[in-house]
Specification:
flat, single chain, mainly beta
Length: 88
């Protein structure tokens, strides 16, 4: 989806369906659903078109750095997350 008419302006989100199953949706700056301080978010799902179980999410922060979350990675664990700094 774009912010302007006739596919113009900034891209707000983009989705991909994989032939092997599942999908991914990337949300960009300007998308109304992004949390404050997040510049982009990538969500992966078990179903097509962003349906089914959300399996993971990656976040890039406006202040730098990022975070990767994996949901339900093993029995008894609901969210495994790793934070990364903006410098190497």
């Amino acid at each position: 989806q774009y912010t302007g008419y006739s596919s113009s302006g900034s891209i707000l989100y983009q989705g991909d369906n994989w032939s092997s199953g599942g999908s991914q949706i990337e949300f960009y700056s300007g998308y109304p659903g992004l949390e404050a301080g997040v510049s982009s978010e990538t969500n992966k799902y078990l179903g097509a078109d962003g349906t089914g179980t959300l399996t993971s999410a990656d976040f890039n922060f406006t202040a730098g750095g990022s975070e990767s979350d994996v949901y339900n990675p093993q029995s008894g664990v609901t969210d495994q997350y790793t934070g990364y700094s903006s410098s190497g």
